[in-house]
Amino acid sequence: MPRRNKSQQVATPSEIPPALQLTENFPVGAYVFYRDPQDNGPRFSFFSNRLLEMLDITREELDADPMVAYRNLHPEDIGPFFEAAEEAARQLPDGFTVWDGAVIDVTERRQAEDEAKTALHLTESIPVGTYVLLSPHQGPQRYTFLSKRWLEMTGLDPVKLKEDISHYFSIVHPEDREEAIAHNIAGAAALKPYKWEGRWLKDGKVTWVSIESVPRKTATGEVVREGVFIDITARKEAEAQLLAAKEEFYRIINHLPIPVASTLHTPGLPVNFINKAFTETYGWTLEDCPTMADWARCAYPDEKYRKAVFDEFDAEVAESVRENRPARPMEFLVTSKHGGQRNVRIDCLVAENMLFGTFLDITEQRQAEAALAAARSLEKVVEEEQRLKLSRKLKTSLKASAIAHEINQPLSRILLQSRLAASGGKTGKSALRSLIAESETVVATIEKMKVLLRNVETSHERVNLYLVVSNSLRQLKQPLALNRIDIERQGPQRGCSVHGDAVQLQLAVMNLLRNAIEAIADGSSRSRKISIELQKCPDSVTLIIGDSGAGWPGGSIEEALLKTSKSNGSGLGLYIVHTTMENHHGKLEVAPFPPRRRRVSHGFSLAA
């Protein structure tokens, strides 16, 4: 409660109510309290309605007990309150003791003061220097607040600073001072957040600081900047060490003999490094390829191929990032600046928000591998040709031996029969007939030898197998009729053409039919029939000849070649069919007993 001057003249109790009625218009609670000298009883001669509201009491309660006005006092404040009240009392001439005053609600002010104290405590506790800088309408800028930490950091005299703000620039590094002054002037003119980083030079020691502030306008239109000074020396030293390490890293990879490039793994993928080996190998420079998109257009000019390359590349890099591993090696054809294409193996890794890649030129390696593969292929071809040549020589030797054997037998008999014929008589006539027969055998053997000698690479032409079979049956009409053999034909008449030697194919079919006739003639089966079937496949034609003879005795075809079970046979018939199939890249199959039919299958392509 405000203390009144004891000598001040006041109205008597009877005059108080009308005068104090004016206090009802004030935003405070007013009262007049007195003590009657006769009974020493305390009473209120005036108590404003606003004060009743502030103390949450009624006038009836107050009239019944004036001391109820003090019931809301905090227990800790009761003693100090009444001690102050005794000092504020004034004595009237008539002996009355009077206390008059007002009650003001200062809760919000006290809360603001507490908050200000808390803020000040926090400001002094944080490891940065804080300040408040005022830009008035008239006059220079001045500091209105400087924290203890700020003063400790700068070591400046606060009195001098408040008198002249330029005193601050005395500790700014000479190399940064001009920039700092210009930055400060520009910041004062612009009502925008302010930030500056620079160096202080104090007692010969360099300190890096960051200054940041946010402006606001006061009710009077003045600009106030509340800001902080942060010591960033440790950060700057770490950045310098990191920069030195990066420079050393790039210096090393710049001299590597392997092409290396890197991009920032940020939108746009800017290329930030290409080493010497990269430019020497592919011709492209950082100016040619400032971004990954530029590199793509340079290295992969074909749009379709470029899309395929980056679909694979982007997918692999994304997966490697998800799995926290290097990307698998990828191989692409890269176009150099000079227009040539190179086989390139790319290995890449995403680290520290950067994409590093090595571009190893493996063109010569791939060329060497291709040359080696070609050499090995050629070696196989040569080996196969040598094997075939030896095989042909062996077959020729076997053929020559077989033919010589077949010729020697009838020639020996011819020689014997000639000697008998020379002796004359009946024996001579019989010998002449035998001589004629043996001569015919020699002629037949020589004809077969001619066919065998044709079993080399010959010019093939379009041959209709249906017509070949028909011609063979026509030539064998007499033995077929003589042995009363029926012919059963199946399969198409057209579309059964193949590329081949007509004479060899004719002779092969003739031999198969002749073998079938002889098998039926030597047998005792009642059924005397030869079945002939043509089967057309997508890329081949198969001829199947079956007979009702004794059938195949068993064993492989190779074992039966140049062998015969007939007294007058040469064994060349099946051999001629087999070699004809080899010459036509076909296949000969003979079904075993009891199906009783021989089968020949041609696997060569149909005629166009």
Provide the residue-averaged pLDDT. 79
CATH architecture label of the largest domain: 2-Layer Sandwich
Q: How many strands in all?
A: 21
Find the CATH superfamily of the largest domain: Histidine kinase-like ATPase, C-terminal domain
CATH class descriptor name of the largest domain: Alpha Beta
Fold-level CATH name of the largest domain: Heat Shock Protein 90
* Biggest sheet overview: 5 strands, antiparallel
- Portion of residues within helices: 40-55%
- Provide the spatial order of strands within the biggest beta sheet: 6-5-9-8-7
Describe the structure.
By secondary structure, the chain is of the alpha+beta class. The chain has 5 domains: 13-105, Beta-Lactamase; 125-231, Beta-Lactamase, CATH 3.30.450.20; 241-361, 2-Layer Sandwich (Beta-Lactamase); 374-453, Orthogonal Bundle (Helix Hairpins), CATH 1.10.287; 457-602, Heat Shock Protein 90 (2-Layer Sandwich), CATH 3.30.565. 46% of the residues lie in helices and 23% in strands. The chain has helices at residues 16-20, 49-55, 59-64, 75-88, 107-125, 148-154, 158-163, 174-189, 233-254, 276-282, 292-299, 303-322, 363-423, 425-453, 465-475, 477-482, 502-522, 557-560, 572-583; strands spanning 29-35, 42-47, 90-91, 97-103, 129-135, 142-146, 194-202, 205-217, 223-231, 260-264, 271-274, 330-335, 341-351, 354-361, 461-464, 486-490, 497-500, 529-536, 541-547, 587-590, 597-602. A 5-stranded antiparallel sheet has the order 6-5-9-8-7, sandwiched between helices. A 5-stranded antiparallel sheet has the order 11-10-14-13-12, sandwiched between helices. A 5-stranded mixed sheet has the order 16-18-19-21-20, with helices on one face. Helix 13 (363-423) runs antiparallel to helix 14, helix 15 (465-475) crosses helix 17 and helix 17 packs antiparallel against helix 19 (572-583). The longest helix is centred in the middle third of the chain and has 61 residues, at 363-423. The chain is elongated, with a radius of gyration of 62 Å.
